[in-house]
Amino acid sequence: MNTLEIFIQIFGALGSIVTIMLGVPQLIRLLKTKKAENINYYSFWIFHVGIIVWIIYGVFTPNENGWYIFLANLFCSFIYAFTMFYLYYYNKNISKKQLGYAVLAIVLSELLVISLFGVFLVLVHQKINLQMFYPVEPKTNVYIGKIAVFDKTKSLIIGLITPACTTLAFTPQLIKGFKTKNFKGLSPWMPFLFIINNTWWILFFSLSIVRAKQIGTESELATLNALIGALIWQIVSTIVYTAQFSLILSYEIKTKKQNIQNQVITS
Q1: Which of 74, 79, 92, 237 has a C-alpha 20 to 30 A away from that of 46?
Q2: What integer best gives the mean pLDDT of the chain?
Q3: In 3-state terms, what secondary structure has residue 136?
């Protein structure tokens, strides 16, 4: 394993760890306050779908280091499923019928994730037997694996669409904050983790692009445009979530100061 591979592995591992934790701050906030106020459910569902699309990307895009993306989003989806459940459970305006529909949708989405895990196990079997997740014929560089993978065009499309789901997911929540002038509801540490997460994935995708060019096989070059698309979206995501983190944190600090002043006045 050369130096480039080592750093790809390191940044992929760091990105994976943070990705798994993305839903944790909001989950902790919900369990602590037992309130789901000022929440835009479109944002959370878009992000939930985005995680699943990332899992699909990690399985069917023939990148030998794509397993980081798959496993990170796999565990993230399990944790985020609980976050989604409590968003409905602690909302007093949600009826039992709406809660039931939400639970059904969450369960069905997680069953899809589990089925994709089954596909991943086939890739692991290929890795054990052929030393590659996506094996190619040495002489022709033609893919010979059992799992169908995205070709160059599909890799490009999925590489552009996939990051857009998670990058723009909380834009409706941000818009709602501007309209109501109330950024309460979303934990500021959630977008903060996104910023840290994006940093590691930017480094991961940048080095993966270099690696794909160096190897030059048909399967690796097929992922090149997808990797570039993913990199661009990660940069955009960093900008979006930096703005969101700043606005939420500023609002919470301002609110706390006002509460302290009100307590001093009343005392």
Answers
A1: 92
A2: 87
A3: strand
Q: How many CB atoms lie within 10 A of CB 248?
A: 23
Q: What is the pLDDT of residues 129-165, one digit of tens each?
A: 988 998 888 888 788 888 888 887 787 777 777 778 8
- At residue 228, what are phi and psi to the nearest 5 degrees? -65, -45
The b/e string for 130-148 (b: 16+ C-beta within 10 A; e otherwise) is: eebbbbbeeeeeebebebe
What is the rounded (10 degree) CA torsion for 38, 72, 106, 237? Answer: 40
The DSSP secondary-structure symbol of 132 reads -
Considering only CA atoms, which of 58, 17, 57, 61 is closest in space to residue 222? Answer: 61
State the alpha helices, DSSP H only, in the chain. Answer: 3-20, 24-33, 41-60, 67-89, 96-130, 152-167, 171-180, 189-215, 218-222, 224-266
For residue 59, give the nearest of 120, 17, 13 by alpha carbon: 120
Q: pTM higher than 0.85, yes or no?
A: no
